Amino acid sequence: DNESQACEFDAIVVGAGFGGMYALHKLRGLGMRVRVLEAAPDVGGTWYWNRYPGLRCDAESVEYSYSFDDGLQQDWEWTEKFATQPEILRYAKHVADRFDFRRDINFETRVKSATYDEATKRWCIVTDRDEELTARFFIMATGCLSVASVPKMKGLDSFKGRWYHSSNWPEGGVNFKGLRVGVIGTGSTGIQLIPEVAKDAAHLYVFQRTPNFTVPAQNGPLSPDFKKYVKENYADIRARARQQGLGLHTHGDQSAFGVSAEERQRRFEAAWQQGGPQFMFVFNDQLKNPEANKAAVDFVHGKIRSIVKDPATADTLCPKDYPIGAKRICVDTNYYATFNRENVTLVDLRKSPIEELTEAGLKTSNGDYELDAIVFATGFDAMTGALLKVNIIGRNGLKLADKWSAGPQNLLGITVSGFPNFFMITGPGSPSVFSNVVMSIEQHVDWMVDCLKYMREQGFAAIEASAEAESSWVQHVNDVANNTLLPQANSWYVGANIPGKPRVFMPYVGGVGQFRKKCDEVAENDYSGFALERG
Ligand code: NA7
């Protein structure tokens, strides 16, 4: 009957950000009946929810965009080197209009649970609107940084002022004019919003637990010549990026010690002046060799000390106890210089931890701060948070949350043993957060869709990662990470920012080219490492 048909799909996709939209596009291309479920009222994912002042992407706009449709990349005009959030959201909406995505998306719908039925080899998905939908394939495209983490601080309820988490910002913005504002957190988010809030606030207190490394964006409008060059060479630029480590098109190929000390400084300086995350890849051993890394650390410390006038403040801003890049590098506009402002005070929580929030503000072990507003720029339950927020139940009643109690076991960051016909776009074990994520999204979705096509051609109804292939993938992800300095910081890469979360290095850092090769090999070998079942 019509009613049951209305709830039966070939594929259900959760999330209408860049991942979900592209999955919808490709699955439609297979002629599938697809439904996308999205909690927000519109498309955009992370770019819908995050709208704090100063928010920009830290990958260059001409790269952080879809490559699947040449008409799209030729028509769209990026205005700046690093796009602002409003511009990226406009782009996401443009893509949704252009490909008529919204007719297949249920907005303001949150998925509560998804259960695999072994008899029918289908998933049953329950939403907060008490709908039950079924689908052969269940795809989580819920993003890596989408579940906000507000630390449990004593007294938060008693605080009389307003408080905000950066990723759940009021639609119309916040007017900080004349207010005493506290920002807690100095990750990428804090580093972007602090200079903006400082312009308005009567006084801004920055509560820093761990200083972060940030490199200047050196942002600016894109010249007509550059835009012309990119459009004429898009195919080449994309092809090169797909093979690179990070999925961005420039990379050094020499050791930091393959050049003289003067030349090393010169290249760091050139990268600093050029701006952006490429600073991490001036030399090919910066993330592997502790000495090469230290050379980059020393360079940035020198910059901080030359920009920040007060030597004690400069010293507090210098990260000293982890390698540069082991926490995801930040990209800023005027961050360090903001600490030269009269109305900005840096508070070192390492010396004086927060004890509690009070009616009037915030109390540290070393004194009280009266505040009218507090911004939590305290990050996310990254990579696994959104996946585990849905009660996902696989074969034999196995809950994903239980399976992952000691860390997110997965194969290729896309599939999980025990969970047939379940796919993750940018899951743990994939290079997503260690790449230009839009490029990774396209790769993951393309691989998944090729797999579904293969299943249809061969008459298979279910696919599932084997336990052995999964263990060796997790081992490989760890081996690759342990060959770098990346696991050495208490970052969200290892879940260290969430109390109680198992410490496991989650992203695949072997590079997007290498990852693509591994995925292609699996496909070429008739999905080796997977069990396929007929209907
Ligand atoms: P991050 O990078 O996780 O940064 C969160 C910041 O908040 C970081 O400085 C934390 O210090 C700080 N934090 C977290 N909890 C607390 C408590 N309880 N007290 C004081 N300070 C705290 O999140 P972002 O949103 O900045 O960036 C996430 C990613 O989004 C980023 O890498 C880009 O990819 C985009 P800590 O370092 O844990 O000591």
From TrEMBL:
<dbReference type="Pfam" id="PF00743">
    <property type="entry name" value="FMO-like"/>
</dbReference>
<dbReference type="GO" id="GO:0050661">
    <property type="term" value="F:NADP binding"/>
</dbReference>
<keyword id="KW-0285">Flavoprotein</keyword>
<dbReference type="InterPro" id="IPR020946">
    <property type="entry name" value="Flavin_mOase-like"/>
</dbReference>
<keyword id="KW-0560">Oxidoreductase</keyword>
<comment type="similarity">
    <text>Belongs to the FAD-binding monooxygenase family.</text>
</comment>
<dbReference type="GO" id="GO:0004499">
    <property type="term" value="F:N,N-dimethylaniline monooxygenase activity"/>
</dbReference>
<dbReference type="GO" id="GO:0050660">
    <property type="term" value="F:flavin adenine dinucleotide binding"/>
</dbReference>
<dbReference type="InterPro" id="IPR036188">
    <property type="entry name" value="FAD/NAD-bd_sf"/>
</dbReference>
<dbReference type="InterPro" id="IPR050775">
    <property type="entry name" value="FAD-binding_Monooxygenases"/>
</dbReference>
<keyword id="KW-0503">Monooxygenase</keyword>
<keyword id="KW-0274">FAD</keyword>
<keyword id="KW-0521">NADP</keyword>
<protein>
    <submittedName>
        <fullName>NAD(P)/FAD-dependent oxidoreductase</fullName>
    </submittedName>
</protein>
